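Below is our example:
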Amino acid sequence: MSNYFQRSIGEQGVCFIIDVEEEVFGIVATKVRKQYPKIFMVGEYVKAPPSFPCVSLVEMDSHPDVSTQTTDCMENHAVVMYELNVYSNKIKGKKAQCKAIAALVDSELSRLGFTRTMLNPIPNTDDATIYRMLGRYTARVSKENVIYRR
């Protein structure tokens, strides 16, 4: 699977954008699903999860590291930010379940080279019976799919 997707830039030709979202999601989802076989895990934001526990892991930002971008628009590195949402509706232990799942995702993202920039509980104003944790992770990715913490 290629780590680039094409972006047309008119008559100048084609630029390639570094894209590792599917690979990162696949690696993390495989690890999480091994430990939580009934988990609902998606690569897009979910306002109202259809089942619990639920994890969404989404690449929310990707921009070129302009200090390494070539004059002909070639990305050598991209700075990416992933957003993690973990939901639980257990009657007892929903906070603990969210923390355990978040820790598992955190461990896997850290192993891949990501840095956690936040991990906090978020009030679920739509349904207070659902506990939610929100995390954000950043990394720098090379065109060869090497992930760097800085």
